[in-house]
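Pilot study result, target chain (258 residues):
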Amino acid sequence: MIPIKNPEAIKRMRESCAIAATVLARLKEQVRPGITTYDLDQIGRDLIASLGARSACHGYQLHSRRYPAYTCLSVNEEVVHGIGSLKRILRDGDIISLDVVVEYNGYIGDNATTVPVGAIAPRTAELLKATEEALHVGIKQAVSGNRIGDISHAIQTYIESRGYGIVREMVGHGVGREMHEEPQIPNFADRKRNRTEEIKPGMTLAIEPMVNLGGYQVRTLSDGWTVVAADGSPSAHFEHTVLTTDSGPEILTIPRAS
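Predicted structure:
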């Protein structure tokens, strides 16, 4: 069952999402050639703490493993869950996905963006543009009375019409007291999409297309966390947390006003 948030929960979600978005915006400003992903992660850690929140990524448990970093920083062919490292120095022409998830006052805020490092190849720039556009195409379908599958179908149609690969192993999800709640929100649809869950007011959904320049297949590195495009092609990831309302979807992950 998909949790429906009451007014108090929605208030807290707004707070946590604003913090997550503020951290993401400020972390994005630190991306430049020559910085290590470890240094970016430490900056993210400090930004989260300065706003009174905690990283929901750090210590996150999957089976017997705990995630060791405070943010997820995925470079080039890395799709998601990249771990900051002193050995990974950003170079001109790279791209990096910044994924920030925070917990504040008992609720989660979750968002991500992919940004260029210096000047990037035109084909890669088009990948970033299309993936961000696909996110907003999906968000437009988060309307009361629609189905979760309508979000999936819209994203898949938009991306595959442009010749890119939609990652299937990782999906969007509900978010609230926990980082991952019902429902799962795939970025691809199947024949059963009209039988997926109905969207109702008060749902909070993390919608997040993950798109490869090449094929959709991925593999996980030996660290047990970092997921990469199997063919080594660049990958982009954009994400917002969205509240469903009677008047349409509302993006919650908007930075605080300075």
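One observation from the pilot: The first strand starts at residue 54 and ends at 55. A full batch analysis is planned for the follow-on phase.
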